[in-house]
Specification:
This protein has helices at about 15-20, 35-45, 50-60, 85-100, 105-120, 125-140, 150-170; strands at about 30-35, 65-70, 75-80, 175-180, 185-190. It is α+β, with helices and mostly antiparallel strands and about 200 residues long. The protein folds into two domains: about 15-125, no CATH class; about 140-195, no CATH class. Strand 2 and strand 3 (about 75-80) form a beta hairpin. Helix 4 runs antiparallel to helix 5 (about 105-120).
């Protein structure tokens, strides 16, 4: 009687970023190596290294890079989209925020996947439409401080603030947007969330 080894279990397939792309999504304009992605993340103040990326990818929280052969070597490549060039920046910053809030990777994974769907579904038409809507506000601006968010953006921000208020159970006073330029400069925009008191118009 000849003993045979039990068949090996197939390892669970881990998605690559290609599996996360919505149908009809544009191909990346270029690719980043893992080191280039880490450098970009650190440039924007996100504490991460290559070991962190591998761990999150192996845990299924982030999609794996695609592997490509080039000049006799195999490279792990990440997409760099013209429409959403900072998709990975956004997702990994969000991941770090959720970790800091005490959530486990099991809790974080579906939230990151949902965030990716939202970011990657943005089309070039969406970006062009947003820029067109902002054009009248920027025509006479000399700097960021001369701009105000358009009414449509304010409505969305107020709705977001109300949602945070409902989830957190604590009333909110305002929502602040901080625009940080590469030279370290900051411009702040404040969106009040509490109704302003009506002026006293009672007759005397």
């Amino acid at each position: 009687m000849t003993a045979t080894a039990p068949p090996k279990k197939a390892s669970a397939k881990r998605d690559t970023w290609e599996d996360w792309l919505p149908e009809g999504a544009p191909a990346p304009d270029r690719f980043l190596t893992r080191d280039e992605l880490v450098d970009r993340l650190r440039h924007y103040g996100i504490d991460v290294d290559a070991r962190d990326l591998r761990f999150w990818e192996n845990s299924g929280v982030l999609p794996r890079p695609v592997k490509r052969r080039h000049n006799g070597a195999t490279w792990a490549l990440y997409p760099d989209w013209g429409v959403s060039p900072n998709a990975y920046l956004y997702l990994i910053r969000r991941l770090r925020q959720l970790q800091a809030a005490g959530q486990s990777l099991q809790q974080i994974a579906p939230r990151i996947r949902r965030s990716a769907e939202i970011v990657l579904n943005a089309s070039g038409e969406d970006v062009s439409a947003a820029r067109s809507a902002l054009a009248p506000f920027s025509q006479y601006a000399n700097g960021p401080e001369d701009l105000d968010p358009p009414d449509t953006a304010i409505s969305l921000l107020v709705a977001f603030g109300r949602t945070v208020e409902a989830v957190g159970g604590v009333p909110n006073d305002r929502l602040e947007i901080v625009y940080v330029s590469t030279d370290g400069g900051e411009t702040r925009y404040t969106v009040p969330l509490q109704p302003e008191p009506l002026p006293d118009v009672t007759s005397r």
